[in-house]
Automatic annotation (TrEMBL):
One of its GO terms (biological process) is proteolysis. Its main location: cytoplasm. PROSITE patterns: MAP_2. InterPro entries: Creatinase/aminopeptidase-like, Met_Aminopeptidase_Type2, Pept_M24, Pept_M24_MAP, Pept_M24A_MAP2, Pept_M24A_MAP2_BS, WH-like_DNA-bd_sf, WH_DNA-bd_sf. This is Methionine aminopeptidase 2. It comes from Magnusiomyces paraingens. Binds 2 divalent metal cations per subunit. Has a high-affinity and a low affinity metal-binding site. The true nature of the physiological cofactor is under debate. The enzyme is active with cobalt, zinc, manganese or divalent iron ions. Most likely, methionine aminopeptidases function as mononuclear Fe(2+)-metalloproteases under physiological conditions, and the catalytically relevant metal-binding site has been assigned to the histidine-containing high-affinity site. Residues 1-97 are annotated as: Disordered.
Length: 458
């Protein structure tokens, strides 16, 4: 996500408005899936869907039906034909196998690591016995595995999404595709122990951030659109925040995407223990603004969106209070050992500045205000639902719908007015402009820097 001056992102989790499905429900659901798999085999490839998933080409396929249409609560974790002898399972397509079934030893892939390359103290970190011992502590190990598990879920879910998102799909189908994958792979027994880290951002074109469809939104993805896919996964409150940009017309926006990918990787490269935030912003801006995009015979300089920024991440809090600028803003605050940062940059063909616009979908409880007194009954009961299901993790209106909440807008707006819940409106650059985003979550380990969410895609 991309905090502006308020910083937070969205998240959510799923839960069941109904109590967990009964065994009968589960069986019926599985039977239906298996039946559909059989039929699929018989009539191979209606719409050329014979794709692969995960790193193998042999992933079982299951029906993607639950990615379409309305978002129905119901069983999401499908232990489809899983080996029972302790051998690792394969991911399905769409992804529905919990990650613990694939990584049976619960060791998740380590992100991309690099050594700290500056400062006398930092140069020695990788081999420093004291620093190495820090990383072997139980506490550190658990934190790393939770973060790496979230990152692997992100990679597997986005792999399927990148292969299957196509113009003509409704935005709500795209959101469900990503969110149902995240729910299944993260195996959360409640929304708060693992699942969606914040609402799935699917911001289009001049909208840079914080758009996700609300109920009744009929927007359809167009071939000419530039879509930022910004989604989050959390495991025990450890949030992975990572985003990429999708386009569908060969080559048309490549220079814009190249600029932002390059800028984000620059921010990642510059980040480190004791580094000043303003210095990262300066490097990012220099790289971003060295690009231009030629579109319909006109040349557009790519600008950083100067009022968007990266941020540190705390348990259950997508914005921990430090902002990582993407221009030189003079902030001399330093990054510190052990911190988790979302490094994200935004490039634009517009003015490079966003404003609030359009219907709000993203909200989060204000971490400092959760206990404030609420008089209005509808607001009070809604606050209980929010507190119980999301805590301070960001959520969107669809997640409330999914929990069976109805006619909650008055209550929600009351909580916003009282400062108990913060709202995060969609953020737009100038009309007709195109904006792009890339984002990774990094961890400043005592010995090395780890880019947790790095994949072979970006
Ligand atoms: Co973010």
């Amino acid at each position: 996500m991309a905090p502006k001056k308020n910083n937070k992102k969205a998240q959510s989790k799923k839960t069941a408005s109904k109590p967990a499905a009964t065994a009968d429900d589960d069986d019926a659901f599985l039977d239906a899936l298996l039946e559909e798999m059989k039929q699929k085999k018989i009539s191979e490839g209606e719409s050329g869907d014979g794709t692969t998933s995960s790193s193998e080409s042999t992933a079982p396929e299951i029906s993607p039906d639950d990615d379409e249409g309305q978002d129905q609560p119901g069983p999401i974790v499908v232990d489809l034909a899983l080996p029972t002898d302790g051998t690792p399972a394969k991911q399905t397509s769409p992804p529905r196998v919990g990650l613990s079934k694939i990584f049976v030893d619960r060791r998740y892939p380590v992100g991309e690591t690099s050594t700290y390359t500056y400062g006398e103290e930092n140069l020695k970190r990788e081999t420093d016995e004291e620093k190495r011992a820090l990383e072997r502590s139980k506490e550190a190990e658990q934190k790393y595995e939770e973060l790496r598990r979230g990152a692997e879920i992100h990679r597997q879910v986005r792999k399927y999404a990148r292969e299957h998102i196509k113009p003509g799909m409704k935005m709500v189908q795209i959101a469900n595709m990503i969110e149902n994958g995240t729910r299944a792979l993260s195996e959360g027994s409640s929304l708060k122990d693992a699942g969606i880290g914040f609402p799935t951002g699917l911001s289009l074109n001049d909208c840079a951030a914080h758009y996700t469809p609300n109920k009744g939104d009929t927007t359809v993805l167009k071939a000419s659109d530039v879509m930022k896919v910004d989604f989050g996964v959390h495991v025990n409150g450890r949030i992975i925040d990572s985003a990429f940009t999708m386009t569908f017309e060969e080559g048309k926006y490549d220079a814009l995407l190249d600029a932002v990918r390059d800028a984000t990787n620059t921010g990642i490269r510059e980040a480190g223990i004791d580094v000043r935030l303003c210095d990262i912003g300066a490097q990012v801006q220099e790289v971003m603004e060295s690009y231009e995009l030629e579109l319909n015979g006109k040349t557009y300089p790519i600008k950083c969106i100067r009022n968007l920024n990266g941020h540190n991440i705390l348990p259950y809090r997508i914005h921990g209070g430090k902002s990582v600028p993407i221009v030189n803003n003079g902030d001399t605050t330093k990054m510190e050992e052990g911190e988790v940062f979302a490094i994200e940059t935004f490039g634009s063909t517009g003015r490079g500045h966003v404003v609030n616009q359009g219907e709000i979908s993203h909200y989060a409880m204000n971490a400092d205000m959760g206990n404030a007194p609420v008089r209005l009954n509808s607001a009070k009961s809604l606050l209980n639902v929010i507190n119980k299901n999301f805590g301070t993790l960001p959520f969107c209106r669809r997640y409330l719908d999914r929990l069976g909440q109805d006619k909650y807008l008055l209550g929600l707006n009351t909580l916003v007015r009282q400062g108990i819940v913060d709202e995060y409106p969609p953020l737009y650059d100038s009309p007709g402009s195109y904006t792009a985003q890339y984002e990774h979550t990094i961890l400043l380990r005592p010995t090395v820097k780890e880019v947790l969410s790095r994949g072979d895609d970006y």
